[in-house]
Amino acid sequence: MAREKLSPSEKQILRELIFAETFQHIQTETEFSYGAIRDDLIKLINHGYIEVSSDSNSAPSAFYDSDHIEDFSFKATKIGLKQI
Q1: Per residue in 32-77, pLDDT tens?
Q2: What is the DSSP letter of 61?
Q3: What is the pLDDT of residues 7-33, one digit of tens each?
Q4: Distance (Å, rounded) from C-alpha 10 to C-alpha 37?
Q5: How far apart are CA 84 and CA 50, in angstroms?
Q6: Most exposed among 3, 12, 21, 32, judged by the fewest C-beta atoms under 10 Å?
Q7: What is the Cα–Cα distance from 42 to 69, expressed in whole angstroms?
Q8: pLDDT-based confidence at 1, cuts 50/70/90?
């Protein structure tokens, strides 16, 4: 997969995800709007830059509900960390 240049907001979100973090944590730390975070997270997930889990202590899952993305936790993957 060709590497796509990340936006400043996507890079900032990735920097928050060295450890598994909740949507609420991302929103508090970045002060981005819900919609902006949701869009960036979906793009980062689709590129394989972050993994999703049902909470910060569970194993990554291939499935998540994009309509309720705030119910999940996120962590940068090795590939994602190389982007920052």
Answers
A1: 999 999 999 999 999 999 999 987 667 777 778 889 999 999 999 9
A2: B
A3: 999 999 999 999 999 999 999 999 999
A4: 8
A5: 12
A6: 3
A7: 9
A8: very low
Burial tier of 84 (Cβ tally within 10 Å: 0-12, 13-18, 19+): middle
Say which residues have a Cβ less than 8 Å from residue 69's Cβ, sequence separation at least 6: 23, 38, 41, 42
Rounded Cα–Cα distance for residues 12 and 77 (Å): 15
- Give, as one character, the DSSP assignment of residue 68: G
Tell which residue, 35, 54, 43, 44, has the closest CA to residue 17. 44
Per DSSP, the three-state class of 64 is: coil
Which phi and psi (to 5°) does residue 7 adopt? -75, 160
Question: What's the pTM?
Answer: 0.88
